[in-house]
Amino acid sequence: MKGLEFLQEIESVTGESISTCFQCYKCTVGCPVISMMDIYPHSIIRHIILGNRDRVLTSKTIWVCLQCITCSVRCPNNIDIARVFEALRKIAVKEGKEAEKDTWQFDEIFMESVNRHGRLYEGGTIIRYKIKRRDFLSDFRMGLGLFLRGRIGVLPHAIKGRRVLKGLLRKRED
Ligand code: SF4
Ligand code: SF4
Predict the structure, then answer these.
(1) Fewest beta carbons within 10 Å, which of 29, 92, 106, 160?
(2) Is residue 109 in contact with ligand 1, taking CB distance under 6 Å?
(3) Percent share of the chain, pLDDT over 70
(4) What's the pLDDT tens digit per position in 110-123?
(5) Can you give the residue range of the structural domain that contains 155?
(6) Are 90 and 17 within one domain?
(7) Is the C-beta atom of 21 inside 6 A of ligand 1?
(8) From the CB of 44, is ligand 1 less than 6 Å away?
(9) What is the 66 CA–ligand 2 centroid distance (Å)?
(10) H helices within the chain, ranges in order?
(11) Which ligand places an atom closest to the C-alpha of 20?
(12) 114 C-alpha to center of ligand 1: Å?
């Protein structure tokens, strides 16, 4: 019964029919970052069905995920796995179980920048992330190299249709 509760919770939050998964592995085979995951995407889905709540919420996989939606597009049962992982991240943070605190902080700052400017404002995002982590020296050489090659924008550049994008992002949150 406990297992069913977790499955129902995630299905209700995401609107996805996770129970239709028949473990075809297509999601895992197409994922570009499985080498960095501790549990493969198809196994996360299986753990949800089996009700292994903590195993799923404390996994690195949900934080390694790039939200590229390759798995979602490949799934023969139309399960939006990327959306499921996003929901799992939110629950993990709410319950203080997130395996990768840095990734969550970066994710928040990144999305704030995209919401505000319609695109990433690299300079502002890096500064905010560094201040939040109180870590100013790691990655310094790489950052300097990128800056000298003009890859880090010093000033923000907003896109024209940022209100439309903002609306789409809000819809995605609902
Ligand atoms: S692609 Fe879909 S059906 Fe296949 S294992 Fe992944 S989630 Fe399950
Ligand atoms: S959305 Fe995440 S889990 Fe799915 S293929 Fe992309 S990186 Fe892998």
Answers:
(1) 160
(2) no
(3) 97
(4) 888 888 888 889 88
(5) 101-173
(6) yes
(7) yes
(8) no
(9) 6
(10) 2-14, 26-30, 41-50, 53-57, 61-64, 70-74, 81-94, 101-117, 122-133, 140-148, 162-173
(11) 1
(12) 30
